[in-house]
Please model this.
Amino acid sequence: MRKPGFKSALIATAVALAAATTFASIEFKSGGATLRLADANGAVESLVADGAERVVPAAEAFTLQLLDAKGEPTRLKSSEFVFDGQRITWRHQNGLCVRMEVAAAGGEFRFKPSVEGIPAGMLLEWFDGPQVYISPDTTLYWPYWDGCEVTDFNCRHYRPIGYVERFGGSIASLYPGFCQMQFMAAYKDGKGVYFSAVDGRHTPKGVEWERVGDKAVRLSLQTFCGDLTDGAWRPKFHYALRPYNGAWMEACEIYRDWVRALPGFDHPPARPKWMYDSPVNLIYPVRGVGSDHSPRDMKPNCYFPYVNAMSAVEKYGKALDSRIMALLMHWEGTAPWAPPYVWPPYGGEAELAKFRDALHARGDLLGVYCSGTAWTQISCIFPRYSLEQRFEDEHLGRHMMRGPKGEITAAICNHIEYGQRLGYDMCLAEDWSIRTVEEEVGKMARFGIDYSQFFDQNLGGGWLLCYAKHHSHPPIPGAWATDAMSTLQKRLVASAGSHGMALGCESAAATPYVPSLFYNDARSMIGFRFGRPVPGLAFVFHEWQCNFSGNQCGISECDPFWRWMYSFHNGDMLSLILGADDGLVEAWCRPWREKFPEQGALVPLVRRLNAIRKKDPSFLLEGRMIRPFVACESRPAKVRYCLWGGTGEVETKEVFTSFWENAKGERVGFASNWRREPSELKITYSDGRVETRTLAPLETIEIKPKGERKVK
Model:
């Protein structure tokens, strides 16, 4: 026998046992679970709990990438190192030394890597380890675009996260951002494995997965290493690998328990009073006819002057028995979706002020979409707008985010044909960028706007990766980047809040930004691209972050009642998308000329759902989503979708259910039939009693823990 050498206050017994094969394994035990690392290369080989294997053998223990002085990458994997199993250390011929402290405690296994001996003239860009492999016949919870279950691992090709490419090619799973949490979970038949970075500084990571042949899927927490000390990377956090029983909810509970101990999560945010009235958003553009790309001159439509929309506000306010937030797109006086400059509004402040005052006189609200922290050189949808000359005259390129080779580009919505602009991204560690953002937000707040989705196109409230060597920050992305965005958001929220304006982002806010951005445009349906949307973000964060069903960006086909019911059970506030002549469209990307035949049924549905929201805000505004306290069964169903031109079909149920708990410990459940015909729901209570309910088309019922119910 021999023992792996490492130090940790939480080290459990670790014994290397002889195996029947050529190599032995390095074994750890904790809470009835057994972890084995391969003696050959230190890769995760096995994790057994309750008699069930939770992983498959990994081919590598880690991968890392170095950059030379010219920004050229060198990628190395663990098999290119010499492994010392006694010390769990890997040494490379170039002098690199990778160490991994492994500790077993509380039923989980903790991995804390370090990298020393980085060759002179090179930088450690990222580290990806430990590597965890799962079987492709499991389901993966991925915290991407508000949360989804991945069931088809052939739906995409993996690439490591890096500097941006046009139209988002290499940033799709960046945390904190597109991915809002730093964990993944895989499960089958109630047996799961949870893999997380326990990182309270929220270092940027790629939260990723990769199909590896026919028999494995690799889980990746690719971590950027810009927080070096003394030429070495010694993170103060660890990665956790643990078996658990359940599916996505149980995994989200593990993450939520950790989140509750983080700064900013000891109490809920100071929400504006209007959120307790659950206003319905009425979303529409001031210019154009429901499409960013045609016509390209973006002429004003029937809702300009702004007060022309008051007829729609009054119509839907009465029909919904609700306050209305008029949430404007294409309102900027510069060009639509042309950040950073948005002010003054199109047509001037006086025209928008008339609308603001008319709304406020009725008790309604004014909101605006913006486009975040990018820099626009030219607009692709409003050709007369260009800042190219100013960019050159003021040498503004020095404040933009740069790649490892000094390159400059941008990703989000930057495409001459498919995007809205061509430009760059501002580095938010630069004083000029910070001042510019603060000035624009301040103009809106002082004017009296109630809500600004300023961080639209900053997915999850995050920003991207800057490698600029001439900026004040390190030349590799790291926790400094999250600190910079968090600091900026806190300053903006404090100044905007003093004028009564709330701020938000596109998609739910990522973990470190939740305390500042608590009302955002949820984009749950984007999960269709990879599997089945599930409300993971709402499950973890709803006590602090109540979002709204947004403009349905990218969706051109999907049952509208399924979508609105999903949003309600996600805990979201509700929205309608305004089309021509005070009518509605199904989604923002649907042209106004396409009629919405079922809008007459949608409006009463939204009224009924919003009445439930308003009845007791302690649940659907302030409450926590919980696991079901009764078992609910309904027949399987399928819903078709078209998302950014891609079509598919997702398995679902005829009846949605969700369960909630308020601060007093009171619990309630809701069940909704999203179909146009009756559906049966079988409810099994904790005492074994079984009840079958027939739900009418588009009906929602309330479920009480002891069986009491009220039809809504």
